[in-house]
Amino acid sequence: MTKKIHLKRKGKEAEPTNEVATSSEASENEEEEDLLQAVKDPGEDSTDDEGIDQEYHSDSSEELEFESDEEGNYLGRKQSSSAEDDDDEEQSSDEEEDESADSEEKDEVSASTSKKIQPEEKPSSSTSSGATKKGAATKELPKRESQSKPEYQDSDTSDEEDIRNTVGNIPMHWYDEYKHIGYDWDAKKIVKPPQGDQIDEFLRKIEDPDFWRTVKDPLTGQDVRLTDEDIALIKRIVSGRIPNKDHEEYEPWIEWFTSEVEKMPIKNVPDHKRSFLPSVSEKKRVSRMVHALKMGWMKTTEEVQREKQAKRGPKFYMLWETDTAREHMRRIHDPVSAPKRDLPGHAESYNPPPEYLFDAKETKEWLKLKDEPHKRKLHFMPQKFKSLREVPAYSRYLRERFLRCLDLYLCPRAKRVKLNIDAEYLIPKLPSPLWEIATGRCIRTIETDEVVRCVAWCPNPKLSIIAVATGNRLLLVNPKVGDKVLVKKTDDLLAEAPSQDVIESERIKTAVQWSNAEADEQEKGVRVVITHFKPIRQVTWHGRGDYLATVMPEGANRSALIHQLSKRRSQIPFSKSKGLIQFVLFHPVKPCFFVATQHNIRIYDLVKQELVKKLLTNSKWISGMSIHPKGDNLLVSTYDKKMLWFDLDLSTKPYQTMRLHRNAVRSVAFHLRYPLFASGSDDQAVIVSHGMVYNDLLQNPLIVPLKKLQTHEKRDEFGVLDVNWHPVQPWVFSTGADCTIRLYT
Amino acid sequence: MRRPKKYEAGEATQYISRRAALRKLQLSLNDFRRLCILKGVYPREPKHRRRAQKGSSEIKVLYHTKDIRFLLHESIVWTLRDYKIFAKKSNRDRAIKDFRNLKRRLALFPEIKLDHIVKERYPTFIDALKDLDDCLTLLFLFSTFPSLHLIPREQSNLCRRLTIEFLHYVIASKSLRKVFISIKGYYFQAEIKGQKVTWIVPHYYPFKPQSRQEVDFKVMSIFVEFYTIMLGFTNFRLFHGLNLAYPPQFPSSVLQDSEESLKDEASFVSDRIAALNFELLRTDKVQEDEEELDIDMELLEQDGDSKRIIKMKQEAQEVSRLRTLFKGLKFFINREVPREPLVILIRSFGGKVSWDSSVFAGSAYDESDETITHQIVDRPSLATQYISRDYVQPQWLFDCVNQRQLLPTNKYFLGEKLPPHLSPFVDSKRDTYIPPEEKALLDPSLIETHAQSDDDSEDEAEKEEEETVDQELLDAQLQLAYQQETAEYKKYGGPDGVNEDEEDPEEDDEEDDDDDEEEEEEVDEKTKRLQQEKQKMSVQSGKVHKVNKRQVHKAEVDEHRLQARMVKPRHRNLFRKLIREKQTKEKEEWLLRKKRRTIEAGEKEARKTAKREARKEAAAAAAKASKLGK
Predict the structure, then answer these.
(1) Percent of chain B residues topping a pLDDT of 70
(2) Is A147:A127 a contact under the CB 8 Å cutoff?
(3) In chain A, what residues touch B435 (CB-CB under 8 Å)?
(4) Which range is most confident: A111-115, A486-490, A687-691, B180-184?
(5) CA of A354 to nearest chain B CA: how many angstroms apart?
(6) Which one of B67, B336, B425 has the shortest CB-CB distance to A333?
(7) Would the CB atoms of B237 and A349 count as touching at under 8 Å?
(8) What is the distance between the alpha carbons of residues A231 and A236, in angstroms, rounded to a whole number?
(9) Mean of the per-residue pLDDT values for chain A?
(10) Which residues 422-481 on chain A approach chain B with CB closer than 8 angstroms?
(11) Is A382 near chain B, with CB under 8 Å?
């Protein structure tokens, strides 16, 4: 490997070394080989950079060699490093011997000396040639000085060698950190001349009259005083004139080649014949071209250019043959076209009506929502311009277009059914024709002594009786409305008590006592009074109108009682109580008995005397219930503001839960004939609702609240206690905590 | 049989995340984006996101698996890969300075072909027209762009060319329907083959340097790349539909051999084309057949007169009127007015237009032409004016088009304060706020009343003010006379006095108990009468009525609220939302109305004070004059 290197170096360095050899004074006798040898010599030079160089070497030796060849400075170092390589040592030493065989002399010339040679030579060579070399300006100066001005040498304390640059043409800042610049012949460091600080410089500036012409030589670090000649030269260069003042710019022109035609030829050879004849080959070539052009095989550059131009743009043709025909083609799956952008409204106009412009408050709000622009009422601020001329470009236009582009390719799309309905549509509608419950007027008020707990119409159409529960007493009242014959008949029927042929048990006797009403009560309409042993909570009629059941919550196992009107006697159906009974009800058609306890409703079969079903209300406290005349639907009111609609065929859970009232619902009632039901609540309101049950089993019941009647007064948090319907007419009775029964027609 | 695992079937297999799609297509994200834009593939919103994302609930970009499989077979995917190869090779050439090879390679740049994609994305021509909105808006924007890093000049030049061609079609087919000057730009709506195509031409000059995160020109440039091809094909078909030569050309009559035209014919022609002011070369000889439309009308007449047909007929008549709105009018556009939008407007409704020849090439006549009927001006005053023409502001044209009739020009005169410019795109039958100007448009009878009412009411108010003093005087005199009369009457007595006494208590009972006391006291008959009269004045039957109304309203609201309670639970949220929307809408309407009222009141006040002051000044001047006269 090293051999190769040597060979290379030999070839390459031939020239410079030659020059050096010819012109040098110090090493005149040295030959090329010597120099190389010297350069190669490994023993001497061991610079600080060795380690680094070694690394270099091991990495990529060849490249480094290349560099070293050119600059020359690296040589020594490179060689030394290569020599120090353990593997190469022997080889290199061998080569040394080979080389040394060629050269006689074998001086101990260090690498540093070889370096020193160059600069030393240069001045001398330049003096001899008189021509400026590369980098001359700086290098020449000291030389000239030394020649022309001996006093300069005197002033310089150090010997001549010191002045010289021994490091060669390298960037001098490499030596910035060292105290020396290069080495002298004896391999001693050349110490940099003392560099004064700023004060020194300042003092020199004042003291030295030649300060202005003193320059620092970067190569040696010496101060150099410029001579007058130098200054003249610099001036000439600066003013753009030819540096050499001896050069004559305008010397007379010597015409070497004249325009005059001589009579005799300069050369006496006659021209060849073919120089007078047109070229055949060219003619052939031209004719071939012409033919090619004619045939269109070849094109002129202009045509080519034009074609290229035409080729570059897109070509358009009739892509769709008709407007609507679609060619079968594989397309995107289930395409969803992007919705179009909203069209602008009045607010976007450049000259909108004044009300669309923002006032101060709106502007403030608009600006405040800078971070959440989607919350803004408008995505832009309406502006008004006096004329079209004043309208500037919209600053966010580009951004808007960009966002639209993003929408088009990045926004997930899906087909959605957009609901374009009015809110009213969601409210259940009444089937027409709708009968009239237009007026809510009170016809008659019957005063009672105690708090009215419950009222119930006799379902028998031949009787005009209301059962009214007040306190311990159950009053059978003739309301004296409707047919007078009927009223009379009822009075007659209730006037006389039937004979009692069945002996009652003690349990019943202690619970109930039947009696006719007294005279003053008779006037009000009360006919029969059934006195119970505990306050009656509720009274209900059987569908035929002969039986009625009462509830006394405090009655323990006797809390539910069934009375027979025709025979004026009573029974107690349950021997054991299953909870606090709230409400009882007869089924209108079947022999069933509904009993509502606090949480649940139980349905008993009266004939079989067994439990049929248990309805789960999921409410805290049931207050009342009512059954639809067809018997399949049950309405339950609870104290937790709800009304529950049970479809008995469907399930034991409510079909619909209604929250119409604002307070505890006290009672509910179905109308016998019309699809109506009413509910009374502690918010003093009676709500009449439409509750249609269809014969078609598939159709679900329709429930629509109709009217809110709010005439009752509030008393101790209680409002309406009970409601009921007239069997035929859409008249509602309601009893309230204000001790009144009200009749709405 | 193996039981399928979770997410091996159903919705999870229908969707594919973007990462998976990239992996499947073997493309980089940039290439994938480009492909998606060109092919019109977009992410999908799954019915059930959790299920579609195989259980993960974060929101990912999901594509339909079938779409991605569809992309797999696309030929431009290979072109995209070729791009990559091309870039690598040419970069290598450049690096090793092999310029000969580089030049050869540059000539072989893989061109992307989009024709088949246009056909594929728009199976019918009508589909393409439906999607023309975004295309036109973007191209009109790009046609104004300077040469940018990601937008070569060629692209913006092509955009300009194509948009101009499209405008030529709009003018030739007279399909423009609605126009609107917004703060964002000019909105144009044309009806092409039954499709409403709306586009925006931005105000000059829309380009502003944008930061990368604000606007990514690369994305837009890809869109434009596709849209140019699409609009080119669309233009081709549209031009052929009108029997126009497609790359638009002029008949030889327009191209007279002038010095200018001979110098550089290509640029001369392209300038004239951009001017939009000349008829284009037709491929057939027949000119203007309006019979087609008439035939349609006749057909409609035969069909009978159901409401819909009558409506259609009206519409057709209106459109035919609109198409000849500016026929016979000659316009001149002043240099400060934006030329292009107005030229489109005027020419597509049959008017003739010109401008100063130094503004743009292709002007037809000079400003000094005496036959010009209207000059469009947008400056406060003008030095030289011709009596023969109307000087109107540009908004006049826009308003005329939107109302489909020539409006009186007096409101739009030079330097006049313009009436509000209303959007033609809002539905006139909507239930939100309608500004009074629009109301006036809908009901022509309101126009005058609205305009006059202001002045009238103002005058009345002024008169009232003037007369109040006189009135008071007169009243006082009358009162005096009346008192005298009654006093006389009392003195001499009369048969009717008793009757009057009888009447009084009835009325008093109704009204107040205080009156009874007063009656007991002996008061002069005169004062009693006065009081009576006062009471008569004060008793208002309306008061009772009002209470009723409120009650009725309250009952209605109550009932409505009750019924609203019965909304099915699954609709309850929707119902609430709808109600809320309705309420906000109402609130907005109310707000606008209120604002308008206050503005108008303020204006009126200002005008009144101005007038009063003017009058005062006049009076003062008159007084001075009279003094001087004395």
Answers:
(1) 81
(2) yes
(3) 346, 353, 355-356
(4) B180-184
(5) 7
(6) B67
(7) no
(8) 9
(9) 73
(10) 422-423, 426-428
(11) yes
Instruction: Give how many domains chain A has, as a whole number.
Output: 4
A306-320, B97-111, B491-505: which is most confident:
B97-111
- Is B216 inside a domain boundary? yes
Residues in B 370-389 with any Cβ partner in A closer than 8 A: 378-379
Among residues B212, B174, B204, B218, which one has the least CA distance to residue B192? B174
Q: Residue A151: inside a domain, yes or no?
A: yes
- Contact between B395 and B350 under an 8 Å Cβ cutoff? The reply is no
Contacts of residue B123 in chain A, CB cutoff 8 Å? 326-327, 329, 331
Nearest to B59, CA basis, from B44, B47, B49, B48: B49
B100 and B123, same domain (yes or no): no
Q: What pLDDT score does A400 carry?
A: 93
Choose among A316, A333, A343: nearest Cβ to B425.
Answer: A343
Touching check for B137 and chain A: CB below 8 Å?
yes
DSSP symbol at A556: G
A173 located within any domain: yes
- The pair of structure tokens assigned to B216 is 């990514």
Residue ending a domain, among B197, B221, B244, is B244
Q: Which of B37, B32, B2 is nearest to B18 (CA)?
A: B32
User: Measured between alpha carbons, how far is B433 from B589 in angstroms, rounded to an integer?
Assistant: 5
Q: Is the peptide bond before B205 cis (omega within 30 degrees of 0)?
A: yes
Q: Count CB neighbours of B484 within 10 A.
A: 10
Looking at the fold, whether B197 and B119 belong to one and the same domain comes out as yes
In a domain, A98, yes or no: yes
> Any CB–CB contact under 8 A between A573 and chain B?
no
By Cβ distance, the residue of B42, B223, B423 closest to A413 is B42
pLDDT digits over B463-502, tens only?
544 545 555 566 667 777 777 776 766 666 544 444 444 4
Q: Report phi then psi at A489, rounded to 5.
A: -60, -45
pLDDT of residue A150: 45
Q: What confidence category does residue B235 fall into, taking pLDDT thresholds of 50, 70 and 90?
A: very high
Q: Tell me if B19 is assigned to some domain.
A: yes
Minimum distance, in Å, between the CA of residue B73 and any CA atom of chain A: 10
Split at pLDDT 50, 70, 90, the class of B209 is confident
What pLDDT score was predicted for residue B297?
A: 55
Burial B519-531 (b: 16+ CB within 10 A, else e): eeeeeeeeebeeb
Could you tell me if B210 and A399 are in contact, meaning their C-beta atoms sit under 8 angstroms apart?
A: yes
Does the distance separating the beta carbons of B566 and A314 come in below 8 Å?
no
Cα–Cα distance measured from residue A477 to residue A517, given in angstroms and rounded to the nearest whole number: 9
CB-based contact, B563 to chain A, within 8 Å: yes
The sign of the torsion formed by the CA atoms of B99, B102, B104, B106 equals negative
Nearest to A632 by CA among A570, A552, A691, A548: A691
State whether residue B467 sits within 8 Å of chain A by CB.
no
Question: Do A331 and B120 count as a contact with CB atoms less than 8 A apart?
Answer: yes
* ipTM (interface pTM): 0.81
Q: Is residue B613 one of the residues assigned to a domain? A: yes
Q: How many CA within 13 A on the CB side of residue B168? A: 33
Whether residue A156 is found in the same domain as residue A10: no
Three-state secondary-structure class, residue A744: strand
pLDDT of residue A147: 43
Residue contact A345–B426, C-beta within 8 A: yes
Give the CATH number, domain containing residue A656. 2.130.10.10
Q: Is the pTM of this model over 0.80?
A: no
Residue-wise pLDDT for A60-99, tens only, equals 334 433 343 444 444 444 444 443 444 444 444 444 444 4
In terms of average pLDDT, the best of A163-167, A706-710, B594-598 is B594-598
One-letter amino acid identity for A163? Answer: I
Side chain identity, residue B260: E
Q: How high is the mean pLDDT of chain B? A: 82
